[in-house]
Amino acid sequence: MDAGLNYGPTRKVWSEFMVSHGFNAGDITGIYITHYHPDHYGAAGWLQKLSGAPVYMSVVEASMTEKIWRQGTQNLDILVRMYLENGVPDGLVTKMLENVNDMRSMVAPQPEITPLSDGEEVRLGDLYYRVVSTPGHSDGHVCFYCEENGVLLSGDHLLPHITSNISLWPQSHPNPLDNFLTSLAENHRLRVSLALPAHGECFSNVEQRLTELEDHHRERLNTMKRIASRGATAYQVCMEVFGNGLSLHETRFALTETMAHLVYLQKRGELRVDRENGAYKYSL
Ligand SMILES: [Zn+2]
Question: Which protein residues have their CB within 5 A of the ion that is ligand 1?
Answer without folding.
Answer: 37, 156
